[in-house]
Write a structure and sequence with these properties.
31% of the residues are buried. The chain has two domains: 92 residues; 208 residues, Rossmann fold, CATH 3.40.50. Helices cover 63% and strands 15% of the residues. The protein has twelve helices and seven strands. Helix 3 packs across helix 4, helix 3 packs parallel to helix 7 and helix 5 runs parallel beside helix 6. The chain has 334 residues and is an alpha/beta fold. A hairpin with a 6-residue loop joins strand 6 and strand 7. Strands 3-2-1-4-5-7-6 form a seven-stranded mixed β-sheet, with helices on both faces.
C-alpha cells in the first residue's frame, strides 16, 4: 500500500513538473511571439512612414511642377487678353472715335499710327503706299493707281492725299478749266498729281513742286507707274525759290490752274508770290485743299475779301474720315 501511495505521489509530482515546464515553455514562446509581433508592427510602421514620405515628396514634386505651369497659363491668358484689347482699340475703337474729331484724327493717324508703323515695318508711309501701288495697280493705268491708293488709305493706313471724297471735286474743276499749264504746290506721293495729269488735254503740262526729296523720289515712281511721266515735271525744292524761276526756267507766261496742297502756312505767301511774279492771268483758277482741317484762315480771309478774287467753297470731308473739310476755289480777276 505504501509502495502504491509513493508511486502515486511520484507520478503526481512528475506531472506537476511537466505541466510547469509546459507552462514555462508556453510563456517563453508567447514572449518570443510577442517580440516578433512588436518587431513586425515596428517594421510596418517604418515601411508606412517611408511610403508616406515618398508620396509626400511626390506630391510636393507635382505641386512644384504644377505651380510654374499654372503661372505660365495665367501669364499667357493675360497676354492674350491684353493683345485682344489692344487689337480692338487699334483697329476699331480708336479709329471710329477719331473719325469725327479733326485734331484727334490728325494726332492719331499722322503722329501715332505713322510712327508706330514706321518702327514696326522699318519703312515710311510713302514707301508703303508705293508698295501697295506696285502690288495692286496695273502699270500704265492711272485709274487703277488712284484706286489702289484710296483702298490702301481707307482700309490699311491713312495718308494726307486729297482723297476719294474731295477727289471728284478736284476732277470737276480741272475738267472745267482744261488747263494748258497747271501748277501743283505739294506733290507728296503723287496722288493728286495723277488725278490732275490724267485729265489734262493733249500737249498740256503740269509742274508739281515738292520740298521733301524722299517724297519726291516716291512720287516719281508712282507717277511713272501710272504712265503719266510725260505730262508731269516734278521739281524738288522750296516753293519760294522755285516760283520766281518759272518764267525764265520753263518759259511759262502764266498758269491756267493752280492747286495748293502743301504746308498750309505757305498758301497765302505763295499766292502773293505768284501774283508778284505775274504767273496768274485773268481767269486763272486757284483750288486750295484742307482750308478747314487743318485750316488756312489767313488765306481764306485774303481770297474771300480781296477784289482780285471771286471765291466759293466746296464742302467735303478730310481725306478718309468724317471730319468736315473742303476745297476753296478762287478765280483770279486780274
Amino acid at each position: 500500500m505504501r509502495i502504491g501511495k509513493n508511486q502515486e505521489r511520484e507520478s503526481s509530482s512528475s506531472f506537476k513538473s511537466v505541466s510547469t515546464c509546459l507552462r514555462l515553455e508556453v510563456r517563453e514562446r508567447g514572449r518570443a511571439s510577442g517580440l516578433w509581433c512588436k518587431r513586425d508592427v515596428e517594421g510596418g510602421r517604418k515601411l508606412r512612414a517611408q511610403r508616406d514620405k515618398k508620396s509626400a515628396v511626390a506630391r510636393l514634386g507635382r505641386k512644384t511642377t504644377a505651380a510654374p505651369r499654372s503661372m505660365w497659363l495665367y501669364f499667357l491668358s493675360v497676354c492674350a487678353g491684353v493683345a485682344a484689347a489692344l487689337y480692338v482699340l487699334w483697329s476699331w475703337l480708336i479709329p471710329a472715335v477719331v473719325q469725327y474729331n479733326p485734331w484727334l484724327a490728325l494726332l492719331w493717324h499722322d503722329a501715332i499710327v505713322q510712327q508706330v508703323l514706321n518702327i514696326l515695318t522699318r519703312s515710311t508711309r510713302p514707301q508703303r503706299i508705293l508698295k501697295a501701288v506696285q502690288n495692286n495697280a496695273t502699270r500704265g493705268d492711272a485709274e487703277s493707281v488712284i484706286a489702289a491708293i484710296d483702298n490702301f488709305c481707307r482700309k490699311k493706313e491713312w495718308a494726307m492725299n486729297v482723297g476719294d471724297d474731295k477727289g471728284p471735286i478736284l476732277d470737276s474743276v480741272v475738267s472745267e478749266v482744261s488747263p494748258s499749264f497747271a501748277l501743283e504746290l505739294g506733290t507728296y506721293c503723287g496722288y493728286s498729281t495723277i488725278r490732275i495729269a490724267r485729265l489734262l488735254p493733249p500737249g498740256s503740262r503740269l509742274l508739281t513742286l515738292e520740298f521733301n526729296p524722299d517724297y519726291a523720289a516716291i512720287a516719281h515712281q508712282i507717277i511713272a507707274w501710272a504712265g503719266l511721266q510725260d505730262k508731269v515735271e516734278l521739281l524738288e525744292g522750296p516753293s519760294r525759290d522755285l516760283i520766281p524761276q518759272m518764267k525764265e526756267r520753263f518759259g511759262i507766261k502764266s498758269f491756267d490752274f493752280v492747286f495748293l496742297d502743301h504746308w498750309k502756312e505757305f498758301y497765302l505767301p505763295d499766292t502773293k508770290l505768284l501774283e508778284e511774279c505775274g504767273l496768274l492771268r485773268k481767269g486763272t483758277v486757284l483750288l486750295a485743299d484742307n482750308v478747314i482741317c487743318p485750316g488756312t484762315p489767313k488765306y481764306l480771309e485774303y481770297v474771300r475779301n480781296s477784289p482780285c478774287y471771286e471765291s466759293c467753297y466746296f464742302k467735303s470731308h478730310l481725306e478718309y474720315t468724317k471730319v468736315e473739310d473742303g476745297l476753296e476755289k478762287s478765280v483770279f480777276l486780274g
